[in-house]
Amino acid sequence: MSGPTIGVLALQGDVREHVAALTGAGADARPVRRPEELDAVHGLVIPGGESTTISKLADIFEMREPIDKRIAGGLPVYGSCAGMIMLAREVLDGRPDQRGFDGIAMTVRRNAFGRQVDSFEAPVAVSGVEGGPFHAVFIRAPWVERVGEGVEVLGTVTEGPAAGRIVAVRQGNLLATSFHPELTGDLRLHRYFVGLVRAAS
Ligand code: GLN
Fold it and tell me: What's the total number of domains in the chain?
């Protein structure tokens, strides 16, 4: 059985790593930067990178409205790190001109961990994903301060000064993590997302 076609929003960020992880997880993965390329996919990943830049380029490449429309139509979307910020309805410590998609009913704090350290690693168990906690890598990462109705908390940090912070959520077909599973060779989250895309298409 051939895998579902999943795009990786290729405006800025770690696009190649997500394409590789999705391919390893059984998807037909490809970079997407134009509206007509978006039409061809059954799921979309918004990579880690810099949310202020992705926001700006989403306007320049005229991708904002097409992506919002597809989200409204039920398109499964997974955002990691900057991608999580782009999927949040409210952002704290963002730049005044940055704007996300019509995504998850949550408030995220940008660079939340970065006040103490730029990057760190911690175990994070994600409910619905078997095989033990992820070795989660956080790089100037956001965390989720509040979730609204219909948002399921899938994972929190379990150790250290950030213990208890929400770092993985899902609302319907929208999935977001503060950390970067695409950088660690652990394909479980990408497999989970591929399953979500299969179920939705
Ligand atoms: N700090 C970045 C932002 O605000 C996110 C960092 C990342 O994606 N690794 O978008």
Answer: 1
